[in-house]
């Protein structure tokens, strides 16, 4: 498989909601990319939609919410973000730090997409929302990269001995 295809797969998996760079980094390494290449293309893919979600998701929700299939997905995303906001007084009080910590923890249901939705529902301007989200993605990426390196190194060690 050509290297550009590996880069594109890793990049586009990084864009996907829920999977984000948490899945893209191991996939990139599994495709034969270096850890650095996997990290960079996953990171770039993961941060690409942040601005658009923070700035424009509500008008899109309003527009697409008129159709039943989209309404279910929109309601799910809206309810998830709203619950995260309501259940976290710290997130409301320390917004930038809360967004950073929320996005930086690499577990399902956290990440740039939901963090950006939360920022939108808190009516944060992009200037205040985007930096902590990007730093959170960077931190989550370092954590996932470390876990991936340990995992792949352990697997390689087992198979080589």
Structure description:
The chain has helices at 3-15, 20-30, 35-47, 50-64, 68-86, 89-93, 95-104, 112-121, 126-160. It is globular and about 55 Å long. The two termini are 28 Å apart. It is 81% helix and 0% strand. The protein is mostly helical.
Features:
161 residues, 9 helices, 0% strand
Q: What would you report as the Rg, rounded to the nearest angstrom?
A: 17 Å
Mean pLDDT: 88
Approximately how much helix is present in the residues? over 70%
What are the secondary-structure elements, in order, as H or E?
HHHHHHHHH
Could you give the distance between the termini?
Answer: 28 Å
Low-confidence stretches: none
Main sheet attributes: strand count, strand direction, barrel closure:
none
Share of residues in strands: under 5%
Count of distinct strands? 0
Shape: globular
SS content category: mainly alpha
What's the tally of helices?
Answer: 9
């Amino acid at each position: 498989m050509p290297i550009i295809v590996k880069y594109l797969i890793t990049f586009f998996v990084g864009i996907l909601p829920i999977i984000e760079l948490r899945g893209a980094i191991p996939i990139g390494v599994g495709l034969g990319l270096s850890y650095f290449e996997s990290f960079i293309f996953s990171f770039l893919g993961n941060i690409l939609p942040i601005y658009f979600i923070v700035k424009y998701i509500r008008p899109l929700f309003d527009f697409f919410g008129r159709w039943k299939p989209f309404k279910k997905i929109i309601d799910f995303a809206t309810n998830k973000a709203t619950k995260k906001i309501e259940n976290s007084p710290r997130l409301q009080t320390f917004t930038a730090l809360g967004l950073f910590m929320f996005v930086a923890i690499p577990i399902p249901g956290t990440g740039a997409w939901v963090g950006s939705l939360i920022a939108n529902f808190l009516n944060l301007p992009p200037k205040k929302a985007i930096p902590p989200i990007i730093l959170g993605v960077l931190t989550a990426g370092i954590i996932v990269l470390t876990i991936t390196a340990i995992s792949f190194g352990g697997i390689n060690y087992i198979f080589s001995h």
